[in-house]
Amino acid sequence: MRLRPFTRMRRGLGLLWQALVKFYGDNGFFLSSGITFNILITLIPFIILLLAVVGTYLYNDQDVLDHVRAYLRNVAPTMDPRIMSNLMDVIQRRQAIGILGFGGLIWFSTWVFTSIRIALNIVFRAGKPRNIIRALGVDLLMVGAVGTLFLLNMVLSSVFTVLQGYQGRILAVAGPAIQWTLKYLLPFLLTYAVFCLVYKVIPNKTVYFRSTLKVGLFTSVLWELAKHVFAWYVANLAQYSLFYGSLTAVAVFVLWIYYSATIFLVGGELLYLLEQDRRQAESGKGPP
Predict the structure, then answer these.
(1) Is the model's pTM score more than 0.85?
(2) pLDDT of residue 7
(3) Half-sphere exposure of 139 (CA within 13 A, CB side)
(4) Quick one: 214 exposed, middle or buried, by C-beta within 10 A (0-12, 13-18, 19+)?
(5) Residues contacting 257, CB < 8 A, separation 6+
(6) What local confidence, expressed as pLDDT, does residue 1 receive?
(7) Is residue 79's pLDDT more than 60?
(8) 5: CB partners within 8 A, 6+ apart
(9) What does the DSSP 8-state code read for residue 99?
(10) What are the angstrom distances between the C-alpha of 255 and each of 4, 12, 36, 44, 166?
(11) Which 3 state secondary structure label does DSSP give 183?
């Protein structure tokens, strides 16, 4: 029996409220702070790892840095240019990477997925975590998968840029569409793919693929809306400089990562509830 649009909307809002309540009960704000901390300490190692792999074989370092800079500017619109400049200076002044250094970069890069795995296992109430070898394998898989998605984004961006450089009536008409694709659509698709991948693979629970697609889309759209609202709020209303002074740019960047982690975990709570409803429906005990 198909639900009417109003009934579906009411049920969806009800699930969202339940997700928020469960998020609070699972100490979601504390879990978000843990993910935020790991993202901050693994950001530079992950970028250097990309340079070590992608920059050596497919792109030069400057091309990779340009793509990273453009992506970070998109996902963190409130990032102060001075932070971006200092971040890139640290990366560009790195020393040559040996075998041990390369292994260390991989190890550091897995930390963010380790924290996400722990948080999602709490959200999904996974009673028994994966053994350490399997868990490390999943974390390494996620590092490689996210790096591959980022590489795919770079390749498509390069293709669109080359197409945009050609002269011709058709491409001249398609120019604005290409710019819109590069600025909005590709980053959104990358974000959506990462959310779906993380929700599907990381929890130590079997997750229905359709539920993952639904929640991944919801979380991606909510994250995009929150990004623009947060950027507007910081630019027009917030007075962080009164409290943080010269550290304002860093504080705003950390807050944005924290809000992003919170949105991600709320999506995880919603996915858990959807899976619960699906299992109840399959057993004949769910809502009609």
Answers:
(1) no
(2) 75
(3) 21
(4) middle
(5) 36, 39, 40, 76
(6) 47
(7) no
(8) none
(9) H
(10) 39, 28, 9, 18, 41
(11) helix
Q: Which two tokens stand for residue 24?
A: 């609070």
Structure-block tokens of residue 168: 């011709």
| Helices 99-109 and 132-165, axial angle in degrees (round to 10) | 100
Give the residue carrying structure tokens 């399959």: 282
Separation CA 143–CA 53 (nearest Å): 12
Q: What is the pLDDT of residues 237-274, one digit of tens each?
A: 666 665 555 566 677 778 888 999 999 999 999 999 99
Looking at 34-48, 148-162, 212-226, 250-264, which range is the least confident one?
148-162
CB atoms inside a 10 Å sphere around CB 107: 15
Residue identified by tokens 């398609």 is 174
Residue 94: partners with Cβ closer than 8 Å, 6 or more residues away: 48, 51
CA distance 87 to 43: 9
Q: Which two tokens stand for residue 105?
A: 């970069």
Tokens 């623009």 map to which residue? Answer: 228
Two structure tokens written together for 177: 């569409």
The alpha-helical segments, DSSP class H, found in the chain are 5-25, 28-57, 61-75, 81-92, 99-109, 111-123, 132-165, 169-180, 186-201, 209-236, 241-244, 248-282
In the block, which residue shows the tokens 């009673």?
127
The pLDDT assigned to 128 comes to 74
Contact predicate 230/256, CB 8 Å: yes
CB 141, CB 201: distance < 8 Å = yes
Q: Please give the structure tokens belonging to residue 153.
A: 């984004």
